[in-house]
Amino acid sequence: PANSTEVWVDEGLTFAVGLPDPWDLPNGTRFAGLLVNGTAQRDFRVGKPMTLRVQYAEVYYWAVVETPVNKTAGWMPKGTVLKFPDIINFGNGTRLVGPSVREVAVDRPVKVVVTYAKRQHYVAILGVVEWEGWADEGAVVRLNATVVGGVEYTPAEVVTAWNPGVYRPLFYAVYRTVARDVMGVPNPLATVKLCDATASPLPDGSAVVTAYTRELCQPTVEAFPISPYTAAGAAAVATAAALALKRRKK
Questions:
Q1: List of long-range contacts for 141-149, beta carbons under 8 Å, 24+ apart
Q2: For residue range 85-144, what is the model confidence (pLDDT) as tens digits?
Q3: Roughly how many angstroms between the first and final C-alpha of the chain, as a whole number?
Q4: How many whole angstroms separate alpha carbon 243 and alpha carbon 246?
Q5: DSSP state, 223?
Q6: Beta partners for 14?
Q7: What's the pLDDT at 129?
Q8: pTM of the model
Q9: Which of 41, 51, 43, 42 has the alpha carbon at shortest distance from 7?
């Protein structure tokens, strides 16, 4: 395959084909499976002029492959197709996606360097809101404001996916209500609680309580069943009734 030679040989002697098998060339090519005139015979008795045609049944090329996880090198059969996965999952909550090369046909000596466009981490969000999935390394996981049980929750910090893991982000919770007694009258003496925070209503019974939290909070309103307004009204009615009864007796 590389060249041709001619030589005089005395009649009756044996000519040996001494080419190596396999035969490695300096350019990264290997021939293997030596055949002489289509046979495995290597020695030929010279009784006449002859032509010996040497071929190799197999051809290999030296291939060097570098990926983010390893580097390999070796002989590859001609025509081999090297394929690289779209995703490399390390099994620890981290993966690579988007290979720069998906497949290469080995039809010559090659060096292939495969890089991946993104490194991703598996992130789980727990607490006020729940979400889990793959996020690009360094990306901010967007959290939306939400209302649960009448409480408004607004994200107070961001989650940046530098590593895989479980995150419980901080939220700013706001609860607005009007404290009323059993008669539906505003009760300014009530106590409104949310998480570890408390607030007292205004004279009209309206109250706003806020807190920072990583979990959902159950708001509560604590108060006597009768507001001072209802009690005052009842006292006024009782006083008026007593005065009216006193006048009738006179």
A1: 141/167, 143/169, 148/216, 149/216, 149/218, 149/219
A2: 999 999 999 999 999 999 999 999 999 999 999 999 999 999 999 999 999 999 999 899
A3: 141
A4: 5
A5: -
A6: 45
A7: 94
A8: 0.75
A9: 51
DSSP per-residue string spanning 34-53: EEETTBS--EEE-SS-----
Cα separation, 223 vs 26, whole angstroms? 93
| Chain position carrying tokens 């495995």 | 40
Q: Say how far apart CA 151 and CA 174 lie, in whole Å.
A: 6
d(CA 215, CA 135): 23
Nearest to 84 by CA among 109, 61, 105: 105
The DSSP output letter for 144 is -
SS3 per residue for 156-212: CCCEECCCCEEECCCEEEEEEEECECCCCCECCCCEEEECCEEECCCCCCEEEEEEE
What's the mean pLDDT when you consider all of the chain?
A: 90
